[in-house]
Write a structure and sequence with these properties.
This protein has a four-stranded parallel β-sheet with strand order 4-1-5-6, with helices on both faces. Strands 2-3 form a two-stranded antiparallel sheet. 46% of the residues lie in helices and 14% in strands. By secondary structure, the chain is an alpha/beta fold. It has seven helices and six strands, in the order H-H-H-E-E-E-H-E-H-E-H-E-H. It has one domain. The longest helix is centred in the middle third of the chain and has 22 residues.
Length: 208
Amino acid sequence: MQLTCNQQIVGSNPTRGLEGFSVENTVEKIKEAVSKAFDTGTHLNIAKATEKIAKKLGLSERWVEYTHIEFRNKMNEIAYKKVPYNERLLFLPHCMRNATRCKAIYDSEGLQCVCCNECKIGSIKAIAKELGYKGIFVCPGGSIVLELVNRYKPKAVLGVCCYKEAMIAFDVLKDIGVAPQAVLLSRAGCINTEVNTEEVIEKLLLKE
């Protein structure tokens, strides 16, 4: 798949994996554990299941949050995969931009990325655009996300965000009948945050 922004996908996340394992292997182990938990129980208590996996694998707090979100993703994955790309919205956080070199400007729908090659936003946006996503937005999160969801009325939403925003979004979107998926920032904060682009692409491509 070529990137229309003339930009390469850059780097994977800087988060440390479990002791003796790479980040990629840690993600794989958690996803395998989550899938097994779903296979063994129809009435799954996510909090208890997350705690069980955390103890078994010796997860740090950051990876516990990741595991919890993967459970929520798994719960909504079937519904999300049924939605065609042109009925999905992608939300990226504006904190991913290069705070000192970003050339984009803001309008009522968030940051208007110009694909300046200074961060990962342009490359991710290009892939979503090529797939035919209904809308791609770069914004602070919170109320503006709900406003855009209400305006464009998608059937599914993929968001890149912090743990707190993800948890709120899952509940809000569920209440209005929108199938959610989330990818957590691998380095959170207010500026120059990071995400594992491979995970975002994996979620973007999900379909039946």
